[in-house]
Amino acid sequence: MLCGPDIIPIKFYKYSGLHDYHFTIRNEFPYQDIYSLPGWICLVLRNERWVEILLPFEKFPHETEALSILAKMDGECEREGRYIRIHSAYECVVSEREMEFSSIRHALVHPVTVLTRKNVRDSLQQRFGALKINLRNYHHQKEFYRCIGQMLIATDQEIQRRISFNWKNVVRKK
């Protein structure tokens, strides 16, 4: 998994889509310093086997930054910050981002009065029935965690795609 399993509460885990998803990247070395190493060490599923690799920073800058952000995630950080950090990792690698994910990030970091973009406002109204996300509301929580799960899946898929495409630039560790 890209980050700790406690990111999404159990009661929302199935709804998030993670229950049925099998990650292809395992970020099991969270204490790496992205700027002091030549790259990022992770496990990647290749030909149905887990392979330990080093992603050289100069060849995989977006992927290593996304993995670095996610490696430090756990269920201890507050929910809004958790979402923003996962969205940052998602933003590193997914070029055609879903509006619903970005609109939630906007709602978490900006006051309602400055949410002026029509597509952001429409997305929030459609998902939450309001421009303000209330994480004490069960429906809002459910939608919030569904989006987190979907961002993690999209991030995993895109990193896997990029690694497969550039396999010649990956350094196998074992």
Give a nutshell description of this structure.
48% of the residues lie in helices and 11% in strands. By secondary structure, the protein is of the alpha+beta class. It has one domain (5-172).
Descriptive notes:
The protein has one domain (5-172). It is elongated, with a radius of gyration of 17 Å. It has 6 helices and 4 strands, in the order H-E-E-E-H-H-H-H-H-E. The longest helix has 28 residues, at 138-165. Helix 2 (61-71) runs antiparallel to helix 3, helix 3 crosses helix 4 and helix 4 (99-109) crosses helix 5 (118-128). The relative contact order is 0.20. Helix content is 48%, strand content 11%. It is an alpha+beta fold.
Number of helical regions: 6
Low-confidence segments: none
Biggest sheet overview: 4 strands, antiparallel
Strand content: 5-15%
Shape category: elongated
Mean pLDDT: 92
Distance between the termini: 20 Å
Order of helices and strands: HEEEHHHHHE
Number of domains: 1
Oligomer class: single chain
Number of strands: 4
Alpha carbon gyration radius? 17 Å
